[in-house]
UniProtKB/TrEMBL annotation:
<feature type="binding site">
    <location>
        <begin position="24"/>
        <end position="31"/>
    </location>
    <ligand>
        <name>GTP</name>
    </ligand>
</feature>
<dbReference type="InterPro" id="IPR004044">
    <property type="entry name" value="KH_dom_type_2"/>
</dbReference>
<comment type="similarity">
    <text>Belongs to the TRAFAC class TrmE-Era-EngA-EngB-Septin-like GTPase superfamily. Era GTPase family.</text>
</comment>
<dbReference type="InterPro" id="IPR015946">
    <property type="entry name" value="KH_dom-like_a/b"/>
</dbReference>
<keyword id="KW-0547">Nucleotide-binding</keyword>
<feature type="region of interest" description="G4">
    <location>
        <begin position="133"/>
        <end position="136"/>
    </location>
</feature>
<keyword id="KW-1003">Cell membrane</keyword>
<feature type="region of interest" description="G1">
    <location>
        <begin position="24"/>
        <end position="31"/>
    </location>
</feature>
<feature type="domain" description="KH type-2">
    <location>
        <begin position="214"/>
        <end position="291"/>
    </location>
</feature>
<comment type="function">
    <text>An essential GTPase that binds both GDP and GTP, with rapid nucleotide exchange. Plays a role in 16S rRNA processing and 30S ribosomal subunit biogenesis and possibly also in cell cycle regulation and energy metabolism.</text>
</comment>
<feature type="domain" description="Era-type G">
    <location>
        <begin position="16"/>
        <end position="183"/>
    </location>
</feature>
<feature type="binding site">
    <location>
        <begin position="133"/>
        <end position="136"/>
    </location>
    <ligand>
        <name>GTP</name>
    </ligand>
</feature>
<keyword id="KW-0694">RNA-binding</keyword>
<comment type="subunit">
    <text>Monomer.</text>
</comment>
<dbReference type="InterPro" id="IPR027417">
    <property type="entry name" value="P-loop_NTPase"/>
</dbReference>
<dbReference type="Pfam" id="PF07650">
    <property type="entry name" value="KH_2"/>
</dbReference>
<dbReference type="InterPro" id="IPR006073">
    <property type="entry name" value="GTP-bd"/>
</dbReference>
Length: 309
């Protein structure tokens, strides 16, 4: 929804809030942009290997506007998973946000990965803002032809060139974005910049291992939730996670013969998680069949508003 009232808005008492998804093929600079907008805490996370592909929620609060950024799961998988990389769950998420930031890398040109994302974005009614990143890498004169190329493929709500790395024009992007944020409650306190990032990353690391080990048998729509995560007295981080699948047959696949696959998932995930957290972990993994979990409000649950396992 377009609210052309940004000037008056900052002076009024009404609060504006909403969700914005960041999409784009790998390496276009999604994490870098997020870091620039949100601040150091996420940057520290993203410096660790293995985490940049994970969904990270960043909360940006300025005066009376709050924007919650989502790195949409399933929207920028690697090529081998191109076929189902933007499944219905991801599309549902994109339909529920106020705006989508579609990041492209102007230094590499328009590629098949970008075209694929555009095709998917056509199925979404949410306004899409084309964010042309890495402008520090190209001559300004080369931008207009690139813009034309993208314009031919889709009608974007806005086009904003930026350098996420240097921060050039990022404030303008935020100004533009604020126009799309409707009146709404303040979801998070002023000083909160991420919503339990470790838990999200831990869940995504487990999910990633399942997908890698099961290939196509298990859809991307499986969900992993962290039921419990805390540091024990001996310094070991205890993690209890539930893997939700939609069918009994999938449960069997994830567990494997005599639990072999689940063990392997746990082993590989633990390695990454210990690397991420810098401490030893003890992890319990459970597999549950939850037939209609997809019907639940994915965004709200992911953001921790509701924990209904
Ligand atoms: N020169 C330049 N480099 C950039 C810019 N933005 C990001 N980069 C670099 O591009 C690389 C990829 O950036 P990321 O932020 O990790 O990209 P991403 O889209 O999150 O990648 P995935 O997590 O793989 O999806 C990093 O080396 C960044 O430093 C920019 O504006 N200019």
């Amino acid at each position: 929804m377009f609210h052309d009232q940004s000037k008056s808005k900052s002076k009024s008492n009404t609060f504006h809030s909403g969700f914005v998804a960041i999409v784009g093929r790998p390496n276009v600079g999604k994490s870098t942009l997020m870091n620039h907008v949100i601040g150091q805490k996420i940057a520290i996370m993203s410096d660790k290997p293995q985490t940049t592909r994970n969904k990270i929620h960043g909360v940006y609060t300025k005066e009376n506007t709050q924007i919650v950024f989502l790195d949409t799961p399933g929207i920028h998988k690697r090529k081998s998973k191109l076929g189902d990389y933007m499944n219905q769950v991801a599309l549902n998420t994109l339909n529920e946000v106020e705006a989508v930031l579609f990041l492209v890398d102007v230094s590499t040109g328009l590629g098949s990965g970008d075209k694929y994302v555009i095709e998917q974005l056509k199925k979404v009614k949410t306004p899409v803002i084309l964010v042309m990143n890495k402008i520090d890498q190209v001559h300004p004169e080369s931008l207009p032809p690139i813009i034309l190329q993208y314009n031919e493929l889709h009608e974007f709500a806005e086009i904003v060139p930026i350098s996420a790395l240097s921060g050039n024009n990022v404030n303008r992007l935020l100004d533009v974005l604020e126009h799309y944020i409707p009146e709404g409650p303040q979801y998070y306190p002023d000083d909160q910049i991420t919503d339990h990032p470790e838990q999200f990353v831990v869940a995504e690391l487990i999910r990633e291992k399942i997908l890698n080990l099961t290939r196509e048998e298990i859809p991307h729509s499986i969900a992993v939730t962290i039921e419990d995560m805390r540091v024990q007295e001996n310094g070991v981080v205890y993690i209890s996670a539930v893997i939700f699948v939609e069918r009994d047959s999938q449960k069997g696949i994830v567990i494997g013969k005599q639990g072999a696959l689940l063990k392997e998932i746990g082993k590989l995930a633990r390695k990454d998680i210990e690397n991420l957290l810098g401490s030893k972990t003890y992890m319990e993994l459970w597999v549950k069949v939850k037939k209609d979990w997809r019907n639940q409000d994915r965004i709200l649950r992911d953001l921790g508003f509701r924990h209904d396992s």
